[in-house]
Amino acid sequence: MAEVKSPKTDGGDLVISHQEAPAVPVYYDDKDFVNEDGTPTEEELATLRRVAGQVPWTAYTIAFVELCERFSYYGVTQVFTNFVQQPLPSNSATGAGRIIQQSGALGLGQRTATSITQFNQFWAYLMPLVGAYVADRYWGRYKTIMVSIAFAMVGHILLVVCAIPSVIATPKASLGVMILGIIIMGGGTGGFKSNISPLIAEQYKQEKKEVVTLPTGEKVIVDPILTISRIFMYFYLMINVGALTGQISMVYAEHYVGFYLSYLLPTIMFIFCPLIMVICRKKYVRTPATYSVLSRSMQLMAFASRGKWSINPVRTYKNLTDGGFWENAKPSKVPANERPKWMTFDDQWVDEVSRGIKACKVFLWYPLYWITYNQINGNLTSQAAVMDTKGLPNDILSNLNPFSLIILIPIFDLVLYPGLRKMGFNFTPIKKITFGFITGVLAMIWAAVLQYHIYQKSPCGYDAANPDCDPAPINVWAQTGAFVLIAISEIFASITGLEYAFTKAPSNMKSLVTSVFLVMSAFSTAIGFAFVGLANDPLLVWNYTVAAILAALGAFFFWIQFRELDKQEDELNNLAKTTFVGNGGPATETELEAANARRSSLVIEKP
């Protein structure tokens, strides 16, 4: 097993580092059968089945922290639409509609509600860039998470204040406090999200494939990539357990008691996040900040692009994408007298940066996918309000999405994916993401067809959302297909995106690459703002149709662009790991000595 040491830092956090030693994985039957032959041969790689290893217990505690955070986040955001869109029910000061009325508070309409929910989505997924930068450069992941939790707590408290009956009585004041709470909570959420998923994945330290013998006598390969994939699968499952319980309970709290309770209970649940993080602090593997790594990567890219620019954009593109772009920037390829002082890294780090850039290019297509997902808590919630709910709150149906994920994730992990591997089908991340786009398209087609039938059967026709209009005689459970399809698309696209960010990022830039993946949701929301005009009668069929078309185009061009990258999956995962860590400011004597030890042939002019 890995030897754990706890060196003291200069006034900073205690950092747990691991000295590599042979890992002893545990399999589905929780027994260890380690083959002494070690890493697999080429023949074994081609013929043996691959399995996941044991998930460390510390990862489960972090997953529970994520559950609590998602309970609190989705609990409050689930009721945003009704709080803003629907008017205050008669004879209710808290906004509770109880059995016979629709819950509401501010009565500002669907377009305003959609704008606010989309702003919240945009802001919460833009801020991960800031959280990742602070974590990688200054504080490290653990401290950044703790500070982010403090910010989010303040935001939660402000949301409770905006829903107090005396504040609701003054709609402008309530809206102002709500928006302030969203801004502060979103800042904390962003810092939390960009760091919590790398933190959980780095608890698993085995990096090399290993051949082992199962109790059945079958030889298999323990693949760290599959273990990381499993960690993210169940991390995402815990996200949705939190989301499901938070959303359902807060909908009923809103419906029967009032919005203040829908904001108060998530705040109480959120308190468990810092408690668990503090209790388990000394047990976590915590990567320290690397200070200058981001600036070094930018210097590297600038250095690699020297002489590549042309007034001819086609020529520039060809120069920047030719096979020698990164190869010629490796320290071993640069004459000693031409190496800049900051070039203290090794060739392996250049390969890792190149791989990370490829991952970021993959993520650039995600905004077109997230447009489909973003319909859940906005337009699909409003769609349910004009259907026959049989007494159910209109925002309860969106919980079919996390409920489906809780059921489907174990099925995919234990049945579908292993079955495909046994059949010899290599279901790589690029293929999964492509399927995620396609199922997102199918979800939007379902929603568009359903909306068409609502208009056809509503007593008010294409003015179905009119408050004075009776619901369309269509059972609200007809939305089930859209929510289940979106859930399947998340397993393929969203979970795989988190996995891809962690496994393809440079070892000292995990948070940053993860934040690039997350911020694509913010860009998607920005694109969604352009279509807010479609989020109203009589244009809602077009709203879902446009989302389907954009995601379909994304699926097609995504596969066309990355089908060759798909063939490089094992090669990218098996890159030699860099020993470059990085520190603040220019290269120091210590860093230069480390660089010289890595590359004995390297001669650097000391600053």
Automatic annotation (TrEMBL):
Entry's Gene Ontology molecular function annotations: dipeptide transmembrane transporter activity
Location within or outside the cell: Membrane
Chain ranges passing through the membrane: 145-168, 174-192, 231-253, 259-280, 400-420, 432-454, 474-500, 512-535, 541-560
Membrane topology category: Multi-pass membrane protein
Record carries keyword Plastid: no
SUPFAM superfamilies cross-referenced by the UniProt entry: MFS general substrate transporter
Pfam family for this entry, one: PTR2
GO CC term (a single one): plasma membrane
Protein name stated in the entry: Peptide transporter ptr2
Organism for this UniProt entry: Arthrobotrys oligospora (strain ATCC 24927 / CBS 115.81 / DSM 1491) (Nematode-trapping fungus)
